[in-house]
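Trying the structure run again after the queue cleared.
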Amino acid sequence: MAEIIGKIGRESGGFRVVFDIDSQFGRRELWRAISDRDALASWLGTFSHDLVAGNHFTVEYLNDSHYDIEGKVLEFEPLRALDYEWKFGSYPASNIRFDLENGLVGGTHLRLTVSGLDEDDVVRAASTWHAQLEFLRLFLNDIPVPAYALRFRRDELLAAYDQQVRNFGTALTDTDAASPSTPAHRNPMVSVLHAHSYLA
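Done. Tokens:
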């Protein structure tokens, strides 16, 4: 997978962040990683129910943090698209959408779109899903996921995504977005997350 960089943009009534990533892994491997409960439990969290259209679910994070996470599957198209509502604690509900396409030179192109975010939530959400995608990268490469590191890695990324919003301010549009600067990797507890710059 190419380097993980989220791009923040404005949308009607709020913000979204989009991650476009190219991977050498096939669609079936990536689809299983993002839709199968056993696979998800290795990098994202424990889902209470299968991800099929219409199902409601709750999620328990890997790091044992007791957050209230609830969702509902809106679309489930095997090997192509997975779309669900995601309600994290007291924050407004957002929309999580994974799209898979054939890569230009083999492999798979993965797009993750997190939408429906408000100004108070967009930086936290962008940083958190960036860190989660790094966990996905570790899982795909058969590297143990350090669940305890999620909060630390998210906190490392906050400044870069906050800078995106500051760079554009009110001028941020649907087509304009900035790539975050490379965050400092000072915390030794999360150094394993930087062992691979790309999702191979």
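Strands lie at 6-11, 14-23, 45-47, 56-61, 69-77, 81-88, 94-102, 108-117. Worth checking whether this holds up in the mutant runs.
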